[in-house]
Amino acid sequence: QKAEWAKLVNEPTVSKDGQHVELAANIGTPKDVKGVIENGGEAVGLYRTEFLYMGRDQLPTEDEQFEAYKAVLTNMEGKPVVVRTLDIGGDKELPYLHLPKEMNPFLGFRAIRLCLEEQDIFRTQLRALLRASVYGNLRIMFPMIATLDEFRQAKAVLLEEKAALQSKGTAVSDEIEIGIMVEIPSTAVMADSFAKEVDFFSIGTNDLVQYTMAADRMNERVSYLYQPYNPAILRLITMVIEAAHREGKWVGMCGEMAGDPIAIPILLGLGLDEFSMSATSILPARTQILNLSKEEAASYKEKILGMQTTQEVIDFVKTTFNVE
Ligand code: PEP
Ligand code: MG
After folding, report:
1. CB of 183 closer than 6 A to ligand 1?
2. Where is the PEP-utilising enzyme C-terminal domain (predicted)?
């Protein structure tokens, strides 16, 4: 099977009926790019920049960040790279910021909330990204967006930093797409409004499932409620994809679900454009998609969305698409 996969490293991901989807990789450091290329990744769909900030005792400088972003963009050789701005908080702490302990860190002062408040941190990262943008195909993504106001503020800060750099004569790409993660239910519900303003969505199911089911993603006791295939989640995903496509925008997914063999036929049928997963899942996913018809998968959309329980969805996918 490994040998079969290896033949697909440089092949595009096309369904049996000729529809292309993008298979991208999630990375945490510039070193991970090697594995993306070796496994045939068509893009980086999520660069989790938190790791630049973790395991040290002070913030990374603008130049340190610039070097990391430049390395990723350069080594991806013009293929798209979605860089997520700092998503600290929740399970990822930065002791040197000395933030007060919170009762519910997953519902607290984190990610874009922190960045819009502590703007020095945010602006430093944005400058590093903008300076690196000329070395490849950069897409910038904001995490944990809950309201349109947050997106507008974050985008305004980005455009301010861009204008400031350009007025100093620094080259910045004019092709940078600006998108958001959809990982909070309010944003999925309001996707039609967001779709008019963002360039793309990436659905973060790791958090979207946790927040929709009100089940902590780290808590074993409630893990039975952590159900990516619950029809409630599938309906939210569908709302996001339909809203985006009505505005001509693309939608990816960068939660664990995107690489799951049970999810892939469902998501293909719902019209997901980009699947971002751990690099080692890419060739198995490509093999699976080559053997699926998108049109056939889409023909089950209403049936699946009308199901009552998670188990019903899983059983249907296993028998219909021959998934283990
Ligand atoms: C997600 O929430 O699905 C996601 C990809 O982000 P993280 O796992 O880093 O929270
Ligand atoms: Mg998340």
Report:
1. yes
2. 2-291
Q: Which residues are close to ligand 2, an ion, with C-beta < 5 A?
A: 183, 204, 207
Instruction: Say which ligand is closest to the CA of 203.
Output: 1
β-pairing, 250-253 vs 80-84, is unpaired
Give me the catalytic one of 254, 264, 279, 292: 254
Q: What is the DSSP letter of 99?
A: P
Distance CA 175, CA 27 (A): 22
* 3-class DSSP assignment, residue 162: helix
Per-residue pLDDT tens for 14-65? Answer: 999 999 999 999 999 999 999 999 999 999 999 999 999 999 999 999 999 9
Task: Give the ligand whose atoms come closest to the C-alpha of residue 208.
Answer: 1
- Distance (Å) of CA 205 to CA 54, 277, 299: 23, 12, 23
Q: How far apart are the first and last CA of the chain?
A: 16
Are the C-beta atoms of 229 and 263 separated by less than 8 Å? yes
In whole angstroms, give the CA distance from residue 236 to residue 17: 26
Q: Is the CB of 207 under 6 A from ligand 1?
A: yes
Return the residue whose CA atom lies nearest to atom 7 of ligand 1: 206
The mean pLDDT of 237-259, rounded to a whole number, is 98
Q: What is the pLDDT of residue 274?
A: 98
Of all protein residues, the one whose alpha carbon is nearest to atom 4 of ligand 1 is 204
Q: 205: Cβ below 6 Å to ligand 1? A: yes
